[in-house]
Here is the input.
Amino acid sequence: MPTQTMRAVRLHEHGGPEVLRYEEVPVPEAGPGEVLVRVHAVGVNPPDRYLRDGLTRVPGKAESTVGLPVIPGTDVSGVVAAVAADVDGLAVGDEVFGLLRFPGFDGSAYAEYVAAPASDLARKPAGIDHVRAAGAPMAGLTAWQFLIELGHDHPSPFQPAPHRPTALGTDTTVLVNGAAGGVGHFALQLAKWKGARVIAVASGAHHSFLRELGADQVIDYTRSRPEDLVRDVDLVVDTVGGPDSRRFLRTLKRGGSHFPVFPGDFDEDETAKLGVTVSITQVRSNGAQLAELGRLLDTGTVRVAIDSTFPLAEARAAHERASRGHVQGKIVLKVA
Here is the structure.
């Protein structure tokens, strides 16, 4: 019996967007604990580009498990096509979405079919389409695990202590840097859902969008430095992170917290003197949490903004769009 084939995007070498090849490969089989998903849409995330550029080991992993050629991608939305014998709760025909096998680079989502751990999946909210569902998992779970509930006890590769979200309520002020991006626009909406006052930092082109999402104050970082304008916030969520993230420490009140999504450069003596906490975590696949987020998506309490869509065959163009920056929401690949 001939092997069934599908179309997928693979890397045979590392490099720029031009190394993404659209080609024919075997359809995977669902192993124990897995379902086979007929993919309708795929979310494009920073780790996809890191893998393409040559990063093959995620923080916390002792060694790389990536061998070339490899299919990148972790975020999917689609329909269950087959179910392993040991899987309960999902059936052929169910619409699902999920963040697959993260942290790791073996999600293999840029394809017409993917074998997905059932525990990584949740039922797709009926109120949104596959494109928006595919844009939610990694960015939405990152915001959820930073702000709402960590949801696991795995050691952090970034700090010895477990990350603990800050309690959010009507007496809380949250500053979100990079608020228009994938994680940022989810963080803004989740903080508003909890009743917090939110200060959003982004370029001026995104300000009406951020007001629509509920931002109470919007700062254009191209005109003003937010650390010169803001004081006494309870929480900073910096979705940009990196070496400059420490500049936001001065915006916090004593007892406040700073959550950089990407590791920054912080001085323990400085944070102790200021009386603030810096904490970071690593997003992990979690179907149960995604189901909770899905209920907010279904009711419209939280929405997924789509920057742009591309056919799977044009993954290169999607990566080129991502590299230009100033993304509003998510970039998604549509699978025919």
User: Anything to note?
Assistant: The chain has a mean pLDDT of 96. Residues 145 and 245 are 20 Å apart (CA to CA). The longest strand covers residues 34-44. Residues 287-299 form the longest helix (13 residues).
